[in-house]
Write a structure and sequence with these properties.
Blueprint (H helix, E strand, L loop, with lengths): L2 H24 L6 H11 L1 H16 L6 H10 L2 H26 L5 H11 L2 H8 L7 H10 L4 H33 L1
Helix pairs in contact: 2-3, 3-5, 4-9, 5-8, 5-9, 7-9
Protein backbone atom coordinates (compact mmCIF):
# COMPACT_ATOMS: atom_id res chain seq x y z
CA UNK A 1 0.00 0.00 0.00
CA UNK A 2 1.35 3.40 -0.93
CA UNK A 3 2.27 5.87 1.79
CA UNK A 4 -0.33 8.34 0.53
CA UNK A 5 -3.09 5.73 0.92
CA UNK A 6 -1.91 4.97 4.44
CA UNK A 7 -1.92 8.65 5.27
CA UNK A 8 -5.48 9.09 3.96
CA UNK A 9 -6.67 6.03 5.89
CA UNK A 10 -5.10 7.38 9.05
CA UNK A 11 -6.72 10.79 8.59
CA UNK A 12 -10.07 9.16 7.82
CA UNK A 13 -9.80 7.12 11.02
CA UNK A 14 -9.00 10.21 13.12
CA UNK A 15 -11.84 12.15 11.47
CA UNK A 16 -14.33 9.34 12.07
CA UNK A 17 -13.38 9.24 15.75
CA UNK A 18 -13.74 13.01 16.12
CA UNK A 19 -17.13 12.96 14.38
CA UNK A 20 -18.28 10.08 16.62
CA UNK A 21 -17.20 11.88 19.81
CA UNK A 22 -18.79 15.12 18.64
CA UNK A 23 -22.03 13.27 17.87
CA UNK A 24 -22.08 11.75 21.36
CA UNK A 25 -21.37 15.16 22.90
CA UNK A 26 -24.00 17.13 20.99
CA UNK A 27 -26.76 14.52 21.36
CA UNK A 28 -26.10 14.20 25.10
CA UNK A 29 -25.57 10.49 24.67
CA UNK A 30 -23.87 8.78 27.53
CA UNK A 31 -21.22 6.17 26.89
CA UNK A 32 -21.99 3.70 29.64
CA UNK A 33 -19.74 0.62 29.83
CA UNK A 34 -22.23 -1.19 32.07
CA UNK A 35 -24.95 -0.75 29.44
CA UNK A 36 -22.66 -2.10 26.71
CA UNK A 37 -21.76 -5.07 28.92
CA UNK A 38 -25.44 -5.82 29.53
CA UNK A 39 -26.29 -5.67 25.83
CA UNK A 40 -23.35 -7.84 24.78
CA UNK A 41 -23.51 -10.45 27.52
CA UNK A 42 -27.24 -10.77 28.07
CA UNK A 43 -29.00 -9.99 24.80
CA UNK A 44 -26.31 -10.98 22.30
CA UNK A 45 -24.05 -13.30 24.26
CA UNK A 46 -23.33 -15.88 21.56
CA UNK A 47 -22.56 -13.26 18.91
CA UNK A 48 -20.35 -11.33 21.33
CA UNK A 49 -18.51 -14.47 22.45
CA UNK A 50 -17.88 -15.73 18.91
CA UNK A 51 -16.82 -12.21 17.91
CA UNK A 52 -14.42 -12.12 20.86
CA UNK A 53 -12.86 -15.42 19.81
CA UNK A 54 -12.50 -14.22 16.21
CA UNK A 55 -10.87 -10.99 17.39
CA UNK A 56 -8.43 -13.04 19.48
CA UNK A 57 -7.59 -15.21 16.47
CA UNK A 58 -6.93 -12.16 14.28
CA UNK A 59 -4.88 -10.63 17.08
CA UNK A 60 -2.82 -13.82 17.22
CA UNK A 61 -2.00 -13.53 13.54
CA UNK A 62 -0.59 -10.05 14.09
CA UNK A 63 1.92 -8.68 16.53
CA UNK A 64 -0.66 -6.70 18.50
CA UNK A 65 -0.29 -7.07 22.27
CA UNK A 66 -3.08 -9.09 23.84
CA UNK A 67 -3.44 -7.22 27.14
CA UNK A 68 -6.23 -4.90 25.99
CA UNK A 69 -8.20 -7.84 24.61
CA UNK A 70 -7.68 -9.77 27.85
CA UNK A 71 -8.96 -6.82 29.90
CA UNK A 72 -11.99 -6.37 27.66
CA UNK A 73 -12.78 -10.08 27.83
CA UNK A 74 -12.50 -10.18 31.61
CA UNK A 75 -14.84 -7.19 31.86
CA UNK A 76 -17.44 -8.79 29.59
CA UNK A 77 -17.22 -12.49 30.34
CA UNK A 78 -16.55 -14.86 33.23
CA UNK A 79 -13.18 -16.39 34.07
CA UNK A 80 -14.00 -19.72 32.41
CA UNK A 81 -15.43 -18.09 29.28
CA UNK A 82 -12.36 -15.90 28.77
CA UNK A 83 -10.04 -18.81 29.50
CA UNK A 84 -11.65 -21.08 26.89
CA UNK A 85 -11.89 -18.25 24.34
CA UNK A 86 -8.15 -17.64 24.67
CA UNK A 87 -7.35 -21.36 24.40
CA UNK A 88 -9.56 -21.75 21.30
CA UNK A 89 -7.88 -18.72 19.73
CA UNK A 90 -4.38 -20.02 20.51
CA UNK A 91 -5.12 -23.41 18.96
CA UNK A 92 -6.71 -21.76 15.91
CA UNK A 93 -3.92 -19.35 15.15
CA UNK A 94 -1.34 -22.03 15.91
CA UNK A 95 -2.85 -24.20 13.18
CA UNK A 96 -3.08 -21.26 10.77
CA UNK A 97 0.51 -20.13 11.35
CA UNK A 98 1.84 -23.69 11.11
CA UNK A 99 -0.02 -24.30 7.85
CA UNK A 100 1.05 -21.05 6.18
CA UNK A 101 4.64 -21.16 7.39
CA UNK A 102 5.11 -24.31 5.31
CA UNK A 103 3.21 -22.91 2.31
CA UNK A 104 5.34 -19.75 2.10
CA UNK A 105 8.64 -21.67 1.78
CA UNK A 106 10.89 -18.93 3.09
CA UNK A 107 14.60 -19.62 2.98
CA UNK A 108 15.72 -20.19 6.53
CA UNK A 109 19.09 -18.79 7.62
CA UNK A 110 21.67 -21.29 8.82
CA UNK A 111 21.72 -19.76 12.33
CA UNK A 112 18.05 -20.57 12.80
CA UNK A 113 18.52 -24.11 11.52
CA UNK A 114 21.18 -24.65 14.20
CA UNK A 115 18.43 -24.33 16.81
CA UNK A 116 16.63 -27.28 15.24
CA UNK A 117 19.28 -29.72 16.45
CA UNK A 118 19.31 -28.19 19.94
CA UNK A 119 15.52 -28.32 20.31
CA UNK A 120 14.91 -31.73 18.71
CA UNK A 121 15.91 -33.71 21.82
CA UNK A 122 13.55 -31.99 24.25
CA UNK A 123 10.95 -30.27 22.13
CA UNK A 124 7.93 -30.24 24.46
CA UNK A 125 9.72 -29.15 27.68
CA UNK A 126 11.52 -26.35 25.83
CA UNK A 127 8.33 -25.12 24.16
CA UNK A 128 6.49 -25.37 27.49
CA UNK A 129 9.13 -23.33 29.32
CA UNK A 130 9.27 -20.66 26.57
CA UNK A 131 5.59 -19.91 27.23
CA UNK A 132 6.52 -18.63 30.70
CA UNK A 133 9.03 -16.03 29.54
CA UNK A 134 7.43 -12.56 29.54
CA UNK A 135 7.78 -10.83 26.20
CA UNK A 136 7.98 -14.02 24.14
CA UNK A 137 5.23 -13.75 21.56
CA UNK A 138 3.42 -17.06 21.17
CA UNK A 139 2.65 -16.42 17.50
CA UNK A 140 6.31 -15.68 16.69
CA UNK A 141 7.33 -18.75 18.69
CA UNK A 142 4.90 -20.90 16.69
CA UNK A 143 6.26 -19.53 13.42
CA UNK A 144 9.86 -20.12 14.53
CA UNK A 145 9.09 -23.70 15.58
CA UNK A 146 7.25 -24.34 12.33
CA UNK A 147 10.16 -23.07 10.26
CA UNK A 148 12.63 -25.40 11.98
CA UNK A 149 10.31 -28.36 11.29
CA UNK A 150 9.08 -29.19 14.77
CA UNK A 151 6.07 -31.52 14.57
CA UNK A 152 2.68 -29.86 14.90
CA UNK A 153 1.70 -32.31 17.65
CA UNK A 154 4.69 -31.30 19.78
CA UNK A 155 4.09 -27.60 19.16
CA UNK A 156 0.44 -27.93 20.19
CA UNK A 157 1.25 -29.94 23.33
CA UNK A 158 3.95 -27.49 24.45
CA UNK A 159 2.02 -24.33 23.59
CA UNK A 160 -1.31 -25.47 25.00
CA UNK A 161 0.15 -26.78 28.25
CA UNK A 162 2.27 -23.65 28.73
CA UNK A 163 -0.43 -21.15 27.88
CA UNK A 164 -2.97 -23.12 29.91
CA UNK A 165 -1.08 -22.20 33.06
CA UNK A 166 -0.02 -18.66 32.11
CA UNK A 167 -3.51 -17.73 30.90
CA UNK A 168 -5.06 -18.95 34.15
CA UNK A 169 -2.52 -16.92 36.14
CA UNK A 170 -3.05 -13.72 34.10
CA UNK A 171 -6.83 -13.97 34.24
CA UNK A 172 -6.74 -14.66 38.00
CA UNK A 173 -4.53 -11.64 38.66
CA UNK A 174 -6.60 -9.26 36.54
CA UNK A 175 -9.89 -10.60 37.92
CA UNK A 176 -8.53 -10.12 41.45
CA UNK A 177 -7.58 -6.53 40.67
CA UNK A 178 -11.04 -5.86 39.18
CA UNK A 179 -12.77 -7.29 42.24
CA UNK A 180 -10.50 -5.43 44.65
CA UNK A 181 -11.06 -2.09 42.96
CA UNK A 182 -14.81 -2.58 42.63
CA UNK A 183 -15.13 -3.33 46.37
CA UNK A 184 -13.29 -0.10 47.23
CA UNK A 185 -15.57 2.10 45.15
Amino acid sequence: MKNTNKKYLFYAFITANIVFIAYLYFTNSQFNPAMIKAVLTEQHFLVAYIGYILILIVRGLTLLPGTAFLLAGIYLFSFIQVFFAIQIAIISYCLIIYHFSHKLNFKVPEKILQFEQKIKNKEIPIIFSLCFIPGVSINVLIYFLSVINIKLKNILIGIISGTFITTAIYISIVTGVYEATSSIV
